[in-house]
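Hi F.,

I've been meaning to write this up properly since the lab meeting, where we talked about keeping a consistent format for the predictions we share between groups. The idea is simple: the sequence comes first, exactly as it goes in, then the structure tokens exactly as they come out, then a line or two of notes. No screenshots and no reformatting. I'm using this chain as the first example so we have something concrete to point to.
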Amino acid sequence: MAVASRADHGGAGANGLAERFLEMLAAERGAARNTLAAYERDLDDYMSFVARAGKTMIGCGQADIRAFLADVHARGLKASSAARRLSVVRQFHKFLYLEGLRSDDPTTTIEGPKLGRPLPKVLSIAEVDRLLAVAREGVDDPKRPLGERRRAARLTCLLELLYATGLRVSELVGLPRAAALSRERFLMVRGKGDKERLVPLTDAARKAAKAHLELIATDKEKPRQKRWLFPADSAEGHLTRQAFARELKDLAIAAGLAPERVSPHVLRHAFASHLLQNGADLRVVQELLGHADIGTTQIYTHVLDERLKAMVRDLHPLAGE
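Output, unedited:
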């Protein structure tokens, strides 16, 4: 680790204190290399600031930590970056206290920057329709090469299923072939924590799955690929999340949309947001998404807020006065 400069950070012994802290993270918490590198950068930033103030890690106090946070803010760093630095500083000082190297923990009463919860990126209904229309092009054209038709049918099936069900991308690409062979109008999905849930299927999704299966029926598949709805030459035997994400970016460009706006997760958000816009109950959306906690689904409450405003505007007897 690049810690040679720490001898001058925060007074004598700072180098050793930081090393001990990072070693604890690696040994006791199993922190990954990238995590340790990030902790090291943030800790160096803090120790450099304290050293410039003429203080040591043992002698600095609450005022020094608040001054460091003010400095982070003055440098124009985001609230999330400031919160991450404070988290590292908290853990470091707690470590010093528990190790008996300090008689106190100066971070206990320091509040971090308030973080606003980012709203999910969402495509409009018209934009989703455009993606689907471009994906479908050529699926039924017998003049196109079979390989092109298969790719188009697979992408259409992926999109229709994702937009119809709101599946996580890992759930989608890992669907067994039996899921599309059932006559039922729903899918049984095994999600996080090995929990199963039922999600209904639209007619468009079932039709897309049928077309996809008919086109791959003549394909030469390896035995391990035959159980998957979206077989591929990968370690798992099915399409990978990364490959699907790349195909979506290419589709977005073809549909005239900015590729950074389109991803499997964005389409999952679109599924939830469009349901709520059209009157679905938040608890129902929670169940369909497979969220264990309603709090996770509440990122979509901005959609409900807009719907309630529209209802008051359109339905309240005094709204027009």
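Notes:
Residues 150 and 216 are 7 Å apart (CA to CA).
The two ends are 69 Å apart (CA to CA).

If this format works for you, I'll send the rest the same way.

G.
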